[in-house]
Design brief:
By secondary structure, the protein is of the alpha+beta class. The protein is built from twelve helices and 19 strands. A hairpin with a 5-residue loop joins strand 9 and strand 10.
Length: 387
């Protein structure tokens, strides 16, 4: 055994910017690897803060709090994109380990520069143009149907407007944005790619995403995606090309459209653990959270083999209630064979807020889907108050 493979305990102190559910599951994986964590989040007792043991209460853009976190840790990362990348770039230049690189984060957190990064790397994506201020004539000249995306701050369907005709222009987003060609997709896919600090990559099998109409929040995920072996291989290769173009360490969620003509277009990139990878906790040899930590710590990447078909649903807050969560149907759901429930520890629910997820394993993917849909109708998270 070489001295390079000898580590004092704990293995590392990891700083996580963002205390949501992704951070929570990352902390749990870090503990398995013998690491400790510090979380930065503005909400006291955040989901990740509850399990980390140490939380700095502060804003994601506060230079002082970001510096406090990064300088107190061996390596830092994030579970959210809307954070102070300028400060992180300065901290990285001073010699602090931050992964994925804040330089890459700065490009990705702006949807326009993200699209330009992909276009410059030859990654196929929908045609787009910059739209500093919404303009009806410019929209019409570009052509309907189209999608308008806010350059910054959008997530889970927020900051996105789909417009089918000029009659929809009144729903435009009054912010700096881009507009892109609406893609008639036969399926929406996602591929998780881990890239180590040495450039090593490991790719998970593509998954299929079904979104909730109206809220545009991921409703149901099927793993592996029901596509041909040729399309699955092409999706993996495209995802790896996309991540290699960013030249950064960590795990990346690559969202894609499979068009009606069988082409693959990259929709968006998430430089972090991703909702499309929650099933990996039960279904894969190495889950996405441990894989991300392996990548940023410079440890060997784990196997991405999927051990069983899986279906995953998000547990969303009921549309008509808010406040302290009230959970119905837990026992009935857990009585279904193959069901694993994950609750995120959020102190309050709101309509359609992500409160947890459920993964169902079954030897047959269609059976897993049916079970997941039954749980979706059974396990209800409401609240004590009306909104």
């Amino acid at each position: 055994m070489s001295s390079a493979d000898t580590h004092p305990y704990p293995i590392a102190r990891i700083g996580i910017i963002g205390g949501g559910q992704l951070g929570r599951m990352m902390v749990q994986a870090a503990h398995r690897l013998g690491c400790t964590c510090v979380v930065l989040d503005p909400t006291p007792g955040s989901p990740a803060g509850q399990v980390s043991g140490h939380q700095i209460v502060g804003d994601f853009h506060d230079p002082a709090r970001l510096r406090e976190l990064v300088e107190s840790c061996d390596v830092s990362t994030f579970d959210i994109e809307d954070i102070g990348s300028d400060t992180l770039i300065e901290l990285e230049a001073e010699g602090n380990e931050i992964h994925p690189s804040p330089r890459v984060l700065a490009e990705i957190q702006d949807k326009l520069t993200q699209k330009r990064l992909m276009a410059n790397a030859g990654i196929p994506t929908a045609d787009f143009i910059e739209m500093p201020t919404p303009d009806a004539d410019a929209f019409a000249e570009f052509g309907y149907p189209l999608v308008q995306k806010a350059r910054r701050g959008g997530y889970d369907g927020r900051g996105v407007a789909v417009m089918k005709s000029p009659n929809d222009f009144g729903r435009n987003l009054p912010v700096p944005s881009l507009i892109e060609r609406f893609v008639p997709a036969s399926k929406e896919l996602a591929v998780l790619v881990a890239r180590g600090r040495n450039g090593e990559t490991r790719c998970y099998p593509p998954v299929e995403m079904v979104f909730r109409p109206g809220e545009n929040v991921l409703d149901l995920l099927l793993a592996p995606a029901n596509v041909s072996a040729e399309i699955a291989d092409a999706a993996r290769q495209l995802a790896i090309r996309t991540v290699d173009a960013m030249n950064a360490a960590g795990i990346f969620g690559i969202e894609m459209f499979l068009t009606e003509t069988g082409d693959l277009l990259v929709n968006e990139v998430a430089p972090r653990t991703h909702n499309s990878g929650h099933h990996t906790i039960e279904a894969c040899v190495t889950d996405q959270f441990e894989q991300h930590l392996r990548a940023i710590l410079g440890l060997p990447l784990g196997s991405t083999e999927q051990l069983a078909p899986a279906a995953m649903i998000n547990l969303l807050g009921a549309a008509d209630k808010s406040g302290r969560p009230v959970i119905e149907g837990m026992a009935e759901s857990l009585a279904i064979e193959g069901v694993s429930v994950h609750l995120y520890g959020k102190a309050a629910t709101k309509p359609f807020r992500k409160m947890g997820h459920v993964t169902v394993l079954d030897a047959d993917l269609d059976a897993a889907r049916r079970k997941a849909e039954k749980v979706r109708d059974t396990l209800i998270i409401s609240g004590e108050n009306h909104p």
